[in-house]
Specification:
421 residues, alpha+beta, Immunoglobulin-like, 5-stranded mixed sheet, binds the ligand Nc1nc2c(c(=O)[nH]1)N[C@H]1C(S)=C(S)[C@@H](COP(=O)(O)O)O[C@H]1N2, binds molybdenum atom, molybdenum, OxRdtase_Mopterin-bd_sf
């Protein structure tokens, strides 16, 4: 990727967000200083189903639009034509809420060896919120969209571009009208500016980048966005056709007008060259214990392990837990809310021996796809999924290996901990 000059305002914006979120998030290393990024500050975010706004990561490249957002409009273009105010969207359609696990497609990038460029996320760029808004299916139907077959919806952000690249992302119209919404609230609060105020697209279960913040245009066409697709100056193709595609080192992915296979994992298995980061790959994170301080077993000798697991458009079928860094495995129990597009909680009663142990979790989705153990070497490509590896890729996208997410915990006896008090 082309290195661009760091921007002066970046640091201040990150500081302001960390302050507004009251310590629930922390900055993440971004060598080129190109993104506004903060991630969950504590592992305990992953011990709860609902992520408070304060602990929800933030990721964007451009400046947050300011000025007169009260006059904000969303233009419907392409095979539809209308201009909607935010109150048109809110008042003329049913209000719905959706649960969505947002994961940055770059989550896990910091686990690639050798390091890739850009933001060095560990596992902290994932969160689940309840988003309130109007169904896209209702909005588009009211403006004459009937058949979805083979069509795409391109959402364009109104954030002032960093350079010439317009923030434009395309999703199949089928998905858009199925469960996507234009959201104006997050966890029951007015959308915070950094999360897309006054209006953003929510694509349940799909990687963060598809969830365009500050939406100002929705375009219905027969193809994904490419260079020259939009009636505006600038580069239109970058965010869809170049960035956020999974490819080996020194490869320039070819743009596509359309693809038949949307599921990210199926694309990775060979259906599409240089897959697009659409729905999230199967993934899990242990939230508790957090490894920060020693744990003491309960009276029955066990320690409760808790975490979350998700799989994009697919349901999580199984979570396995290992307390010996992956040598032996046992099934954890799934519990709590079960909404499409959102993570599940899991728990495991660990019969804990004293000493230090490394806990890892691995999830399997309903199609039998299981998190791989590690990220491959950069020159390996193709068969790595079959070898329990996720392909190292130049952009560091969509990684879901379980080993790097392990947590090392010290188990002490109750006597030990009282002595220390
Ligand atoms: N307009 C616009 N939308 C955007 C972005 C952006 O830079 N501009 N960043 C995307 C990326 S990469 C992610 S991971 C999610 C993060 O959403 P959040 O900041 O609300 O967590 O927003 C997406 N939507
Ligand atoms: Mo992202």
């Amino acid at each position: 990727m082309v290195a661009e000059a760091p921007r002066e305002s970046r640091h201040d914006e990150i500081e302001a967000i960390v302050e507004a979120k009251d310590g629930g998030v922390k900055p993440v290393r971004d060598e080129a200083n190109k993104y506004t990024v903060v991630g969950a500050a504590e592992r305990s975010t992953f011990a709860n189903w609902l992520t408070p706004v304060e602990e929800h990561f933030v990721c964007h490249r451009n400046d947050i639009p300011d000025g007169d957002v009260d006059a904000w409009t969303v233009s419907l273009t392409g095979q539809v034509e209308a201009t909607l105010s935010v109150s048109d969207i809110a008042d003329e359609h049913p209000t719905v809420a959706v649960a969505h696990t947002m994961e940055c497609a770059g989550n896990g990038r910091g686990q690639h060896d050798p390091e890739t460029g850009s933001v060095q996320w560990g596992f902290e760029a994932a969160a689940t919120a309840i988003w309130t808004g109007a169904p896209l299916g209702s909005i588009l139907r009211d403006h004459g969209v009937e058949s979805t077959e083979g069509k795409w919806l391109t959402a364009v952000g109104g954030d002032p571009a960093d350079g010439d690249d317009v923030f434009a992302r395309s999703i199949p119209l089928e998905k858009a009208t199925d469960d996507c919404i234009l959201a104006f609230e997050m966890n029951g609060e007015t959308l915070p500016r950094e999360h897309g105020y006054p209006i953003r697209l929510i694509v349940p279960g799909w990687y963060g980048v598809n969830n365009v913040k500050w939406v100002e245009e929705l375009r219905v066409t027969d193809s994904m966005v490419g260079q020259g697709s939009l009636d505006r100056p600038g580069e239109h193709a970058y965010w869809q056709q170049e960035a956020y595609r999974i490819h080996p080192q020194e490869t320039d992915p070819d743009p596509n007008e359309t693809i038949e296979t949307v599921d990210t994992w199926e694309q990775l298995e060979g259906a599409v060259d240089h897959p697009y980061t659409f729905d999230a790959n199967v993934m899990s994170v242990i939230g508790s214990p957090d490894g920060e301080s020693p744990v003491t077993p309960k009276a029955d000798g066990t320690v409760d392990i808790r975490g979350v697991a998700w799989a994009g458009d697919d349901a999580v079928d199984r979570v396995e837990l290992s307390t010996d860094r992956g040598d032996t495995w046992d099934d954890a129990e799934l519990f709590g809310p079960d909404y499409a597009g959102a993570w599940r909680l899991f728990r495991y009663g660990w019969d804990a021996a004293l000493g230090r142990h490394t806990l890892v979790s691995r999830a399997t989705d309903e199609l039998g796809r299981r998190q791989p153990a590690t990220i491959s070497a950069p020159d390996a490509w193709g068969e790595v999924l079959e070898n329990d590896e996720f392909p190292w890729n130049e952009g560091g996208y969509a990684a879901n290996a379980y080993e790097p997410n392990g947590v090392t915990v010290e188990v002490r006896s109750a006597d030990d901990s009282t002595e220390n008090e």
